[in-house]
Amino acid sequence: MREMEKNMNRYIVAFRLLHREDEGESRIDGRPLSSSYFEELSFSVEGDATVSAIFDKINRRTSDRVVDVRLFDDLSNYRSPRPTEPDF
After folding, report:
1. What is the rounded CA–CA span in Å between residue 59 and residue 16?
2. Which of 6, 17, 28, 32 is the most buried (most CB within 10 A)?
3. What is the pLDDT of residues 4-59, one digit of tens each?
4. Is residue 83 part of a domain?
5. Residue 87 belongs to some domain of the structure
6. Could you tell me the residue range of the domain that residue 67 belongs to?
7. Whole-number Å distance between alpha carbons of 46 and 88
8. Is residue 50 part of a domain?
9. How many CB atoms lie within 10 A of CB 15?
């Protein structure tokens, strides 16, 4: 069991949120004012995580608008190639 856990790939899920904050109304024409900014968050998942499980985890962490989701390999199982003998 430990060997299986050791060999399981892990991934990083990075997502970007768009936040909007109400700033009241304009004194000139009464239009609503707001400010917007992006926030980037991330978490790791096991290689066997389903897409729906990933999105459920994102939805539990935020109620703001998700505008971008990316999946990265965390390279935890990366093994560098063996050095080769130089050709002379």
Report:
1. 12
2. 17
3. 445 568 899 999 999 888 999 999 999 999 999 999 999 999 988 999 999 999 88
4. no
5. no
6. 2-73
7. 44
8. yes
9. 21
